[in-house]
Amino acid sequence: MSLVIYKNVSINRQNKTVLKDISFSLESSTFYYLIGKVGSGKSSLMKSMYADVPIANGLQAEVLGFDLLNLPRKEIPFLRRKLGIVFQDFQLLQDRSVYSNLEFVLKATGWHDKNQMQQRITEVLKEVGMSTKSYKMPHELSGGEQQRIVIARALLNRPKLILADEPTGNLDPNTGFQILTLLHSLVDSGHTVLMATHNHQLIDDFPGKVFKCVNKQLLQDS
User: Fold this and answer.
1) With contact defined as beta carbons under 8 Å apart, do 36 and 197 qualify?
2) 90-100 pLDDT, tens digit each
3) pLDDT greater than 80 at residue 88
4) 187 within 8 A of 161, measured Cβ to Cβ
5) HSE (CB half, 13 Å, CA atoms) of 118?
6) CB 97 within 8 A of CB 134
7) pLDDT band at residue 87, thresholds of 50, 70 and 90?
8) What is the C-alpha to C-alpha distance for residues 10 and 216, in angstroms, rounded to an integer?
9) Mean per-residue pLDDT for 158-182?
10) pLDDT at 222
11) Which residues partner with 67 through β-bridges?
12) Cβ(63)–Cβ(23) below 8 Å
């Protein structure tokens, strides 16, 4: 089953074409890498999938059943609730605990029952190996621990697709290895992961399907 389908899609940033006439699909329960030089369009492609960067033109651009070519602005929050997004720079709220960070996301995405929220937060923290850290403030956590919380946050609404933009970029090699182990384990749980990275060693250590942004094109390594 295809979660993402792009056909002959072009993406512009600041009136410049960064990707032109690209076609690809993402299938369920699969790990994908997105590689390419800085400025090659990796982040723009990911951001287009959650309607943060508009698609200039194309025959088809569909993400989790949402038609990005004809997506009303009011529908964008519903698309984003079905995605999990993992940022390189964490983007945790620094003025509240881990638990409150996760609770904030659940409330913002329509959860109301306090018991259900508590249960879901407990589940995702256990899934990322952070069950004992819910009371901690972000600044009390290491970079690797913060990234695990970011992954927990991405899992809250049980997304089929997780977009991870350079999730190991600010981490030391050993911690990055641990984060990749965690992300790959999510595929076994039925998630699809698309991860942008500069680190080719990770691809050797954790094989997956590879897309490469080069010369405004998107190529798939065989």
Assistant:
1) no
2) 789 999 999 99
3) no
4) no
5) 4
6) yes
7) confident
8) 9
9) 91
10) 55
11) 62
12) no
Q: Is the pLDDT of residue 110 over 60?
A: yes
3-state secondary structure the chain: CEEEEEEEEEEEECCEEEEEEEEEEEECCCEEEEECCCCCCHHHHHHHHCCCCCEEECCEEEECCEEHHHCCHHHHHHHHHCEEEECCCCCCCCCCCHHHHHHHHHHHCCCCCHHHHHHHHHHHHHHCCCHHHCCCCHHHCCHHHHHHHHHHHHHCCCCCEEEEECCCCCCCHHHHHHHHHHHHHHHHCCCEEEEECCCHHHHHHCCCEEEEEECCEEEECC
Residue with tokens 């029952």: 113
Q: Tokens in use for 204?
A: 């050797």
pLDDT at 193: 96
Report the residue count for the chain: 222
Instruction: Locate 165 and state its tokens.
Output: 């933009």
From the list 165, 221, 157, the residue with the least C-alpha distance to 195 is 165
Q: How many CB atoms lie within 10 A of CB 183?
A: 24
CA dihedral angle for residue 38, residue 43, residue 48, residue 54, rounded to 10 degrees: -50
pLDDT value at position 39? 84
Confidence at residue 153, expressed as pLDDT on a 0 to 100 scale:
94
Contacts of 15 (CB under 8 A, 6+ apart): none
Cα-based angle 135, 178, 40 (whole degrees, multiple of 5):
105
pLDDT of 209 strictly over 90: yes
Could you give the CA distance from residue 111 to residue 81 in angstroms, rounded to a whole number? 11
Average pLDDT over residues 166-190: 90
